[in-house]
Write a structure and sequence with these properties.
alpha/beta; Alpha-Beta Plaits; 5-stranded antiparallel beta sheet; 12 strands
Length: about 290
């Protein structure tokens, strides 16, 4: 059994739900009656048939505010979330904002974008960008965090709701602990993993300390935390936006591309392109009345 969750907050109509049912029915799926999670916001359609063809067919629906998540029904309520930070749990790329304080944002942001699209090796791109920040005063890290970093809408509600229902949460970032640690605390993550910038004489040295948190480390974190908590990967959720998130996204029971770069969106089980992070609660079958509002 599979479930297709249609999400269009404040804009989901009976007609859109009927179109999805008709599309599934026309492509040979055995479709049950729809169920509203929250009327006008999100609805479930349970069906039997092909997961792949259902995803392909429902992706053809042309409604500007619609996100669709199609997945196996049995393990949809996840017990472990592994989340990226930059442009996922927060609204910015921290290294780009740091670069603005040094007057080289355009230069560094261009490298960031190419790395997130998968056009550059993440490790090499990280070393290059951090090298360009060498000599920056350590105090700029806190200044940048206070002035530029904002939590993504729904981040705290997502994590707190999952934790209230027994899930474990890990923030794993290719960014830096100076940002990830306070962000993780503010959202309520159980564990935070990120890169450490080397500081020498009160200034950034231009180097990152090993071990590096890259795509392999993110995947290793997913697998290790699942094993630690005795969970099959089917009961895990991974969410991110860039190419370095692809291994954990593809390995998780539900891999979500959040407003993703094309490569991450294509690799993910589903992409959230129109809504905030609370869409991932509807995807797990949580109606709004069961959310822990952040």
């Amino acid at each position: 059994m599979f479930v297709a969750t249609l999400i269009a907050a404040g804009k989901l109509t009976d007609e859109v739900v009927r179109e999805a049912i008709d599309r599934l029915d026309a492509t040979g799926h055995e479709v049950g009656a729809p169920h509203w999670l929250d009327v006008g916001d999100a609805a479930d359609i349970v069906f039997q048939g092909s997961l792949v063809s259902a995803r392909e067919e429902l992706a053809k629906m042309d409604h500007g505010a619609l996100d669709v998540v199609v997945q196996p029904l049995g393990d949809r309520t996840k017990k472990l979330i592994i989340a990226d930070m930059d442009s996922t749990m927060i609204t910015v790329e921290c290294i780009d904002e740091l670069a603005d304080y040094a007057g080289i944002k355009d230069q560094i942001a261009a490298i960031t974008q190419r790395a997130m699209r998968g056009e550059l090796d993440f490790r090499a791109a990280l070393f290059e960008r951090v090298g360009l920040l060498g000599g920056m005063a350590e105090g700029v890290l806190a200044e940048c965090r206070m002035e530029r970093v904002r939590l993504t809408r729904g981040a705290r509600t997502l994590v707190q709701t999952m934790k209230a229902h027994g899930a474990y949460s890990v923030l794993v970032s290719g960014g830096f602990t100076a940002f990830a640690d306070p962000v993780g605390e503010a959202i309520g993550f159980d564990k935070v993993i990120a890169n450490n910038l080397e500081i020498s004489g009160g200034k950034l040295s231009g180097r990152v300390l090993e071990p590096i948190v890259d795509s392999a480390a993110k995947l290793e974190t997913l697998e290790a935390e699942a094993a630690k908590h005795g969970l099959p990967l089917a009961e895990t959720l991974a969410v991110g936006d860039g190419a370095n998130d692809i291994p954990m996204i593809t390995a998780a029971g539900l891999g979500i591309g959040y407003h993703p770069h094309p490569s991450a969106g294509e690799a993910a089980d589903a992409a959230i392109r129109h809504h905030d992070l609370t869409a991932l609660l509807w995807a797990q079958g949580y109606p709004r009345r069961s959310w822990v509002l952040g």
